[in-house]
User: Which sequence fits this backbone?
């Protein structure tokens, strides 16, 4: 892109916050927008715990997408922290993308978020997600419900999974952004350190492979990461924290099989991210009730 955009109209730039209740597809949408995996995905609610900024740069605009944790009724210090992150995002962005799950009844959780958005001066674009799983008649019915939730600039039906109509959302966001400079270099796609993305990919595999009480109690910290002097291999040492000894046993598994499977699956995603071979060493440690203790929540990076 040429820095002089006078021949094409003014350059636009700004921040777009993606908000919605847990599990509506925010991270899937972000990965589709960026054409790469930067946010982890799982069927477990509250998978996203941090504000993740991803940068989409085009010839006429730069959009900084901010993926947020799902807004929900908090049960502990971690939940309070996640909701605080969402509300901070709402106060900082130029456009809000409010995601709804078209396959489910638009209900109390969506109404709660719509109420939070009603007091904002920031333009809000509503998105009806998962239209790949709906008939045209169902899309039309859900669109009518969505339009009555609040004052939206537009309601856009799309599929974050297949990419159908995602371009319409991008164009609408660009239209709503203020004129401004590029905030980030052309080749930058996220402001998160690589250690954060590595830790998240490990946590994703824990979420995918475990059930019941384990997922919400897991945090991952990358303690060491560096390339060997002879080159070719990146050594990564990471700790998976849980809250109880029983959870540690589940994660390690019989004969260490579960931990080995977590490591294998995580390495298969980390290697393409880094473009290098990876030696991944995982440990499991117990930090009793860490999600209920604000100091430990911060230490885990949330």
Assistant:
């Amino acid at each position: 892109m040429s820095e002089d955009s006078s021949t094409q109209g003014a350059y636009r730039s700004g921040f777009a916050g993606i908000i919605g209740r847990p599990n509506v597809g925010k991270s899937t949408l972000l990965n589709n927008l960026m054409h790469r995996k930067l946010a982890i995905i799982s069927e477990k609610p509250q998978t996203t715990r941090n504000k993740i900024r991803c940068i989409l740069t085009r010839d006429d605009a730069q959009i900084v997408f901010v993926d947020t944790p799902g807004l929900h009724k908090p049960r502990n210090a971690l939940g309070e922290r996640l909701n605080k992150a969402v509300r901070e995002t709402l106060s900082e962005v130029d456009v809000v993308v409010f995601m709804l799950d078209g396959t489910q009844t638009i209900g109390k959780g969506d109404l709660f978020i719509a109420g939070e958005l009603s007091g904002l001066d920031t333009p809000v674009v509503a998105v009806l997600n998962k239209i790949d799983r709906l008939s045209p008649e169902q899309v039309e019915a859900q669109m009518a419900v969505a339009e009555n939730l609040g004052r939206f600039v537009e309601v856009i039906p799309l599929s974050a999974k297949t990419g159908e109509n995602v371009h319409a959302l991008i164009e609408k966001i660009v239209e709503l952004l203020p004129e401004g400079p590029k905030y980030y270099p052309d080749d930058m796609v996220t402001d998160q350190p690589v250690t954060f993305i590595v830790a998240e990919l490990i946590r994703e595999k824990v979420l995918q492979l475990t059930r019941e009480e384990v997922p919400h109690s897991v945090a991952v910290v990358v303690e060491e990461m560096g390339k060997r002097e002879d080159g070719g291999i990146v050594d990564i040492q990471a700790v998976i924290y849980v809250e109880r000894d029983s959870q540690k046993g589940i994660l390690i598994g019989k004969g260490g099989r579960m931990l080995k499977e977590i490591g294998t699956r995580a390495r298969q995603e980390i290697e393409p991210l880094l473009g290098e071979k990876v030696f991944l060493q995982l440990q499991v440690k117990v930090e009793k009730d860490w999600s209920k203790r604000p100091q430990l929540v911060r230490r885990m990076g949330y």
Notes: Confidence is low (pLDDT under 50) at residues 1-7, 42-49. Residues 257-274 form the longest helix (18 residues).
